[in-house]
Amino acid sequence: MARQSSTITRRGVISAAAAASILPVTARAASAWTKAAYETAMRESGRPVSLTDAQFDAIQKRKPAAMRLIESYLKERLGSADPAVLAAFQAVPREYYHYEYPEHRATPGDAYEDNPKPWALGWGSALSDYLGQAYMTQICKPAPGEVTLEIGTGSGFQSSLLSRIVAKSYSIEIIEPLGKAVGKIFAPLGYDNVHSRVGDGYYGWPEVQGGFDIIIVTCAATFAPPDLFKQLKPGGRMIIPIGQPFKRGQVLYVYTKDAEGKIHSKRDIGVFFIPMTGAIQKNQPVRPETVSDHVPAAPKPPAEEAKPPSE
Q: Which numeric CATH code is attached to 3-305?
């Protein structure tokens, strides 16, 4: 596979592959998903919506084709499709995350589209296309018992996916109105192992004791924030797009920390993400850095900026 020529948008891969069969796997147990369950969860999350039976059924009928597309895509790109990743996608109702927050408008009819693409959430954020999310989820190699951190909550779908596999899923969103609204969507689904906050992901979430097995960044950074490496456990993985804001040439990097604490990096595929904002824009390296196979050093921020973000 020629990964160099592939492109993922901020919220996912643009190209798709032919369909194949879905493996009979299961994820973390979930209640039956019905129209009534959907409307109840939406109401409890502060986003009331009403669908006809026909509209809800039409959404559900599209899901099997999307699942086959995900499995086929992962096999084409990565050689196999992780049963746990497929099970997580099967378990999480994607239509629940289709919502335009500034307009207070649910858009569940856009879910499981034939041509996967990002969908607007408002305030410049988007729900990733599902092929891109599947790819990034699988290369993270999530496993039961692990703890994950997402930088850039967005719709909440990525952290929800991880939560169906791992023990605890943490997520940080810098856009305050989006972070506050999306922070209310997990409990109605029973996703009590997802923890979200509004804050600057540049500093990670240092209050989480023991750090993280996986850190997944869903915005383009000009360099990998040092604090994120500090919070990565030995044996941990960090997935992060590195490159210049709003420019082509961004690259998805996979960083790993070995048992001795040494960081190793691997260039993955070409990507295009919206930029990481906040402290990273003030704390650029002294000398301009280009995308490379090392972690660019960044100056320490002033004391008042070094504090972790508040809840």
A: 3.40.50.150
